[in-house]
Amino acid sequence: MRHTPPGPNGEPLFGSSRTYSRDPFRFVEAVESAYGDVARFDMGPLDTYMLADPVAIEQVLVSEADRFRKPDFQNDALGDLLGSGLLLSEGETWERQRTLANPAFSMSRLAGVGDRITDHAEDLVAHWVPGDEMDVERAMTTVTLDVILDLMLGVELPEERVRTIQDQLVPLGRRFEPNPFRFAAPSWMPLPGDGEFSTAIANLEDVLDDIIAQRERETGTEDDGPMDFLSVLLRARDRGEQSPEQLRDELMTMLLAGHDTTALTLTYTWFLLSEHPDVERRVHEEVDDVLAGERPAMAHVREFEYVERVINEAMRLYPPVYTLFRTPTEPVELSGYQIPEGASIMLPQWAVHRSDRFWDDPETFDPDRWRPERQVDRHRFTYFPFGGGPRHCIGKHLAMLEAQLILATIASDYSLKFLGETPLELQPSLTIHPRQTMRMRVEERDS
Ligand code: HEM
Description:
This protein is an alpha+beta fold. The chain has helices at residues 17-22, 24-35, 54-63, 77-82, 91-101, 107-111, 114-125, 136-151, 159-175, 180-184, 194-218, 229-238, 244-257, 260-275, 277-291, 298-303, 306-317, 349-353, 396-413, and strands at residues 38-43, 46-51, 68-69, 133-135, 324-328, 332-334, 337-339, 344-347, 414-418, 426-428, 432-434, 439-444. The strands form 4 sheets. It has a 5-stranded mixed sheet.
């Protein structure tokens, strides 16, 4: 057994954190291409191991998941925002809350909500006129927020309140942009941006209080009531099984984790379709064939093949969550190396999804690589946009359903023409956002 994997040396004090912060995507790609399956480096004081070995990734996420937890450094600012909601909690709290949440995300519940998703997509396009120019990321955020508010929190908010939520996303996102000083500084030390971050959290908490009050007024919390996540939580609260703090943390987690990622997936999909008219044409053909003039519904999503491949391929190239972090709770062996308890482990979707060790021509947008016959030799964890194992994304099926219904609703009538600059420059934060406003023009299909 070898003890220390090779890796970049970095600088005194900062280690590799300054290079990483300047461009995390280029950094993880360079490390993967120089060192392959596993590399070690310092991120400020953190002893960090990057795994780009699908077998080791599966061990961490699935087969040996109980030997790892989410790292504490995520709990600083992210903890202020999400508390012990589903994304960050551990142990018994996580198990109890995940069990409580699962029915709201089950396939049987989702089978009944397709129409409501299509309603929201139709509301979005109701006022579109060919020739309109718009910020597509903003439009996709609006519709995915409407969906999550309706399906998981059981409310429809006035436009002005939806805008309040959207306006907090910028200061929140800024707080999680990689910053070498944050790696090096102790967590109690105030840094620029902390004030606007706290204000954004307080503003979102006000919206959550309104949502709870509105639900209690309108729907009550009877046992045979609706199965959305908020209803389930309110019933648990009434049984004395959910503290007001836990309720707040779960709602905040659901509101934020439940819309931004899906909006980004759609934004990158529209960008890629605009840049690849041949792929767009095939999407239009499949949408027309499958819908046959009907409005998009769950039954059509089951028949989509190419549309699903396009979305998978968009998330390969632009995984909204681009790295996962874990910490071993005991010494572990991964990719032939001993990794100590307490180390920081990075599982970089970005580097694995774009490695020529696993993908032919990895930079090319090629939805056909998702044809079954082209997947046979590929390890399952060469692609993990939704994570894996017990902590896999609870919203995975909802996100895929939603993305396909929204895409089909828009693509039935319109084509979106990207008007910005290429290549896309990306802004890392908790998720990957385009740096520029994603300006696109609505065009009538096939015009
Ligand atoms: C394309 C869309 C989405 C992507 C790419 C995505 C990605 C992910 C990833 C990678 C994780 C695992 C994090 C980790 O292992 O550390 C995760 C967890 C989670 N996601 Fe998603 N997500 C998406 C949509 C959604 C939606 C629609 C919801 C809610 C409605 C949601 C709620 C959550 C929650 C609550 C967790 C924590 C689950 C747990 O630990 O039990 N996500 N997501």
